[in-house]
Design a protein that fits this description.
Number of domains of chain B: 3
Number of domains of chain A: 3
Distance between the termini of chain A: 53 Å
CATH superfamily of the largest domain in chain A: CO dehydrogenase flavoprotein, C-terminal domain
Strand order of the largest sheet of chain A: 4-5-10-6-7
Distance between the termini of chain B: 46 Å
Number of helices of chain B: 20
CATH topology of the largest domain in chain A: Enolase-like, domain 1
Shape of chain A: globular
Number of strands of chain B: 29
Largest sheet of chain B: 7 strands, mixed
CATH class of the largest domain in chain B: Alpha Beta
Number of helices of chain A: 12
Order of helices and strands of chain A: EHEHEEEHHHHHHEEHEEEEEEEHHH
Shape of chain B: globular
Radius of gyration of chain B: 29 Å
Helix content of chain B: 25-40%
CATH class of the largest domain in chain A: Alpha Beta
Strand content of chain B: 15-25%
Radius of gyration of chain A: 19 Å
CATH topology of the largest domain in chain B: Aldehyde Oxidoreductase, domain 4
Oligomer: heterodimer
Largest interface: A-B, 25 and 28 residues
Chain lengths: 293, 816
């Protein structure tokens, strides 16, 4: 369990990082928190010839809150974002999801942007980027570009990021007033990759739902958003109608997800699980929407 | 008086060192050593056609590359079969490096020695091995069908077939008013010590001496095996177990291929060589345990008394049998637990599969046996509509019936004879602790909230402290420092503390003056090892006996010097003094000075022992004829049989009505390991055991696919429970002393894990209302069982006695 030889690059600026990435092309890999990459290297599941370690790059470690979004730099650790009071006030969903990301030791080192760039379908933060209609800020040899989440994730562990590009930040979009969010997942052990997970955002106006969406962990190939509006819009949370609406939601979720089986649980079990989790998490979001409203 | 040390919950002496990074584990040693790495088989069953290492030799830093053909003499012969048994008719062991054929994924084929582990692994990656793949046998059903063979010369894959019978089971079964048959299944798990195996060897060419360190549970065993393999005089081989980060059984097996190859390479190259096992290696090339299929047929009367118990076990021993058939022997004997079976027959087949070999893991066959027996007890209770605790109670061996001889041979080849135990008292305590009789109310309340809960129970008896022997050596320096040595090894049990407690108590010295060394063949060449919950019983007893010898000697010498009778003396906090006249005294340090007549005064204290100091009888030699110089003593303890500890556990679980997630709400333990040396350490052992048991019950399995690939060979997918998965453990103790040893103690190391699968199965069954016959169980498994139950594939329990929300107790229900 020792990695194959590689050259270690330690750029100090985004420009230098991009320049090294451009030079080494597909032989290069960006190292940020290393919580997925290092085990992969140690098990020799990948042997990139060059590691571009961005930990010394200045200016990537900030969390900024704007009226529209929470912007998270590429060196912000999960723990830093989780503990950011400003980020929590602006978008409670971030902390709600982050506490489910592995264990504190991993969150202390792992980065939120790294997790998104890794694009593991079992990762929480790619799903959250989708749920918040987020954007990835990318630096490349020909300048910067922005990629909407829906254009960013192409497949399992596959993104539209080119070999010579660096994801420098992501922006999680904020929700309108009156929105409550919630996140839950079920893992075999606390902190493990989830068998299934779901995040929801539900907006209440004048006592009834005026918009709702969900995104999922471990049960879809790439992050995707399910619009729950058709099932929930106009329904008063907790009313008699609400329970029937949740049944409709469950049906929609069942149809939306495409889980795969593995040694821990079958596809059918995961489908049942994510459906049930969605049912259980929506009332939480509705409560919070009420509190905000 | 000296503070009572024996029995006190004293904090562990070793912990400040271990928890502040002061531990010296195998990989902390030998920074100048070359590193070994291995090419291991990627196939479960294959013929080796060709090995091409030409590209690897070019890697800078490679010092040597070795295959089986390179191994001379005994190094190239099969590894020893450590525990032969007459019924192990087809025992097979592997080679240090595979010869011609591989029989499981992970079997070592090539050893690379290089300047460091990185380089060694780079070279391994460049070695091309060509294989001819052979058909693979995975799983017990495939093994017992015998259609495909693991070893060509082992018909039906049967390594051993063993039968023990007491009484006429057939007749008793035929006459029994009721019979039931249960088919049961326990999956594989493994020890998974935090520190893997490891070996480090240095060769002194000039002196022809080998010093090796191994992360082992038996340094004397490794030393003897390596000396034999390398054809070295025993006197020229030293083996030291440094701090060892957990063993749990896997490190009692020896010599592992690496324990032979690393010293061999160190001698060949004349340079120190080290190998530290990584986690993937531990998964695929160490050892696993547990996997068994079981069929229990039981005959019983209307009151639930056992009349006949007929058990068949199919035990998966993996690809080889270096540790013999200890595991299934233990299952087949310890299965009986605290019960009288009426008549008993147990037959087992130990079967080869193309998987990692199976050797004892904490519990060592007992969790499987306990599962079989306890599932049977629950089934009888359900069949008759009796309370589950009551059925158990009716079959208990009573304290008045001790010692109880089951008429079977135990794993040490000696009679399975329980020395002591008070099972009714244990059960009463357990029922009290868990609130057995109040559970009906609790369940009613939970059900009204839409929750499903269940109560489970499991009882076991554990033969601990098996022979053949251990020794203790104690020496008191002139400073008063007490050096204690025993040959068995430590893997975190707290030996430095408990052995010191014994010595402090027996000698009358302070804890802080006692220093314990374990597992160093330079200090104690005669020893067996740390396994079978035997260290406290074996070494503890030997050390107590040695301490008594030293005490007697100290009193003799002091009595002479103080001109009193030894009977008038006592030793308090390291000072020998006259009872009732404490001013007349001398320290043990001074006694040590007097015990060793000196020619040279190396310090002030030594002056007193020199030839011109004081008066002496010119007609007597300085050292009396029946004495030896020095205040020291040694003794050995070798019992006629094991001593039997016992315990009873109960748990309350909750299962999610939709997702089938399983939560342990309460876990209660009553534990009886005889007289306790240190209750805090016993409790720690129980907690650790239960944690491993929870792993075995709810999380851990070895997911082999049909081709013999282990799909979950990492801690990401092999689910050892975290602290978050282990419930709070409520433990209480009973102390039924063993009459077999000087301290009345019994082993406690393995106990905690033994009944957990049985207990959790019992609780889930109670919550769900259909039989649980296979463990471990995951939420997905339970969800599938519910579906099959709903489809009528799995019957419901009768549950006539179940304390449900329908309060209609039948006449048979106990009134307790």
């Amino acid at each position: 369990m020792k990695p194959a030889p590689f050259e270690h690059h330690a750029p100090l600026t985004v420009e230098q990082a991009v320049s090294v990435l451009t030079e080494v092309g597909h032989d290069g890999k960006v190292l940020a928190g290393g919580q997925s990459l290092i085990p992969i290297l140690n098990m020799r599941l990948a042997s990139p010839a060059h590691l571009v370690d961005i930990n010394r790059v200045a200016g990537l470690d900030t969390v900024e809150v704007t009226p529209e979004a929470v912007r998270v730099g590429a060196l912000v650790r999960h723990a830093g974002l989780e503990r950011s009071a400003e980020a929590y006030a602006a978008l409670p969903l971030l902390r709600q999801a982050l506490v489910n990301v592995a264990h504190p030791a991993i969150r202390n080192r792992g980065t939120t942007v790294g997790s998104i760039a890794h694009a593991d379908a079992a990762g929480e933060m790619p799903a959250i980027l989708a749920l918040t209609d987020g954007v990835v800020e990318v630096a490349g040899p020909s300048g910067s570009r922005e990629v909407a989440w829906s254009d960013f994730f192409l497949g399992a562990l596959e993104t539209s990021l080119a070999a010579e590009e660096l994801a420098v930040a992501v922006r999680f979009g904020r929700f309108p007033a009156g929105t409550g969010t919630a996140f839950t997942e079920a893992a075999r052990r606390h902190g493990d990759y989830a068998m299934a997970g779901v995040g929801v955002a539900l907006t209440v106006a004048d006592g009834v739902v005026s918009g709702a969406r969900a995104s999922f962990v471990s049960v879809t190939d790439v992050p995707s958003v399910l619009d729950l509006g058709p099932a929930l819009d106009g329904v008063e949370p907790g009313s008699g109608e609400w329970d029937a609406a949740l049944d409709t939601v469950a049906e929609a979720v069942r149809g939306h997800v495409e889980p795969e089986g593995d040694i821990h649980a079958s596809a059918d079990y995961r489908r049942m699980l994510v459906t049930e989790l969605t049912r259980r998490v929506l009332p939480q979001a509705a409560d919070r929407a009420g509190a905000i409203a | 008086m000296t503070t009572q040390m024996f029995g006190a919950p004293i904090r562990r002496k070793e912990d400040p060192r271990l928890v502040t990074g002061g531990g010296r584990y195998l990989d902390d040693l030998g920074h100048d050593a070359l590193a070994a790495a291995f090419v291991r088989s990627p196939h479960a069953h294959a013929r080796i056609v060709d090995i091409d290492a030409s590209e690897a030799t070019e890697v800078e830093g490679v010092v040597g590359i070795y295959v089986h053909e390179d191994l001379p003499g005994r190094v190239g012969e099969p590894l020893p079969l450590l525990i032969p048994h007459p019924t192990l008719t087809h025992g097979r062991t592997g080679y240090a490096l595979a010869k011609d054929e591989v029989n499981h994924v992970g079997e070592p084929i090539v050893m690379v020695v290089a300047t460091d582990r990185y380089v060694a692994e780079d070279a391994c990656q460049r070695i091309r091995v060509t294989y001819d793949q052979l058909p693979v046998v995975v799983g017990i059903e495939a093994a017992r069908s015998g259609e495909l063979l693991v070893h060509d010369d082992v018909p039906d894959n049967v390594a051993a077939h063993m039968l023990q019978e007491v009484g006429d089971v057939e007749a008793a079964m035929a006459a029994a008013p009721h019979t039931l048959t249960l088919d049961l299944d326990i999956e594989r798990s493994a020890c998974m010590p935090m520190e893997g195996k490891g070996v480090y060897a240095r060769w002194d060419r000039d002196r022809g001496e080998l010093r090796m360190y191994s992360s082992t549970q038996t340094s004397t065993g490794v030393r003897a095996a390596v000396a034999a393999k390398l054809d070295l005089p025993l006197a020229k081989v030293e083996c030291i177990a440094p701090d060892v980060g957990g063993g749990f059984g896997v490190k009692i097996v020896h010599p592992w291929p690496e324990e032979v190859l690393v010293p061999w390479a160190a001698i060949l190259l004349g340079r120190p060589v080290k190998w530290a096992e990584d986690r993937r290696e531990h998964f695929i090339s160490a050892a696993h345990e547990r996997g068994q299929l079981q069929q229990v047929t039981v005959g019983f009367d209307d009151d639930g008394h056992l009349l006949a118990l007929d058990v068949k076990l199919w035990h998966d021993n993996g690809a080889y049998t270096p540790y013999g058939i200890i595991v299934p022997i233990i299952t087949s004997t310890q299965l009986l637990g605290p019960y009288k079976p009426g008549t008993y027959r147990c037959e087992f087949w130990s079967l080869y599969t193309n998987t990692v070999l199976v050797t004892p893991y904490r519990g060592a066959g007992r969790p499987q046996g306990c599962f079989a027996m306890e599932r049977t007890m629950d089934a009888i209770a359900d069949e008759l509509g009796l309370d589950r605790a009551e059925v158990r109670s009716r079959n208990f061996i009573l304290p008045t019936e001790m010692p109880w001889d089951h008429g079977l041979l135990f794993q040490d080849g000696r009679p399975l004879k329980y020395d002591s135990g008070d099972f009714p008292a244990s059960l009463a305590k357990l029922k009290d602790l868990v609130g057995w009789d109040d559970f009906a109310d609790y369940r009613r309340q939970a059900e009204s909230e839409g929750r499903k809960v269940g109560l489970g129970i499991g009882c076991y008896v554990e033969g601990t402290g098996v022979g053949p022997y251990e020794g203790g050596h104690i020496q008191i320096e002139t400073s008063g420092r007490v050096n204690v040595s025993t040959g068995l090894t430590s893997q975190g049990q707290g030996h430095e503390t408990v052995f010191a407690q014994i010595v402090a108590q027996e000698l009358g010295v302070r804890m802080e003056d006692v220093f314990v060394t374990t597992g160093d063949t330079r200090k104690m060449a005669y020893a067996v090892g740390t396994f079978a919950s035997r260290a406290a019983v074996m070494s503890g007893s030997a050390i107590a006996l040695a301490a008594r010898n030293v005490r007697a000697k100290a009193l003799r010498i002091a009595a002479d010097a103080l001109e009193v009778s030894p009977e008038d003396l006592e030793i308090v906090e390291g000072t020998v003094r006259v009872k009732g006249a404490p001013a007349t005294s001398m320290t043990l340090g001074t006694v040590s000075v007097l015990s060793n007549p000196l020619r040279y005064a190396f310090d002030e204290a030594a002056k007193a022992a020199t030839q011109f100091a004081g008066t002496f009888d010119p007609d007597k030699p300085p050292v009396a004829e029946d004495e030896e110089p020095g205040l020291e003593g040694k003794d050995f303890y070798s019992p006629t049989q094991a001593t039997f500890a016992n315990g009873m556990h109960a748990a309350i679980v909750e299962t999610d009505p939709v997702t089938a997630e399983i939560r342990i709400l309460r876990y209660c333990v009553i534990h009886d390991c005889g007289t306790m040396i240190n209750p805090m350490i016993v409790e720690g052992q129980v907690h650790g055991g239960v944690a491993q048991g929870v792993g075995g019950a709810l999380y851990e399995r070895m997911a082999y696919d049909e081709s013999g690939q282990l799909l979950n060979a990492s801690f990401m997918d092999f689910l050892m429970p975290y602290a978050s998965e282990v419930p709070t453990i409520e433990a209480d103790h009973l102390e039924t002393p063993s009459p077999l040893n000087p301290l009345g103690i019994k082993g406690a190391g393995e106990a905690g894990c033994i009944p957990v699968s049985a207990v959790i199965a019992s609780a889930i069954e109670d919550a769900e209302g259909f039989p649980i016959t296979r463990m471990p169980i995951s939420p997905y498994d339970l969800w599938e069982l519910r579906r099959r139950h709903a489809d009528g594939e799995i019957p419901s329990l009768h549950r006539t006695s179940r304390t449900t929300s329908t309060p209609s107790p039948s006449s048979k229900e106990p009134t307790a």
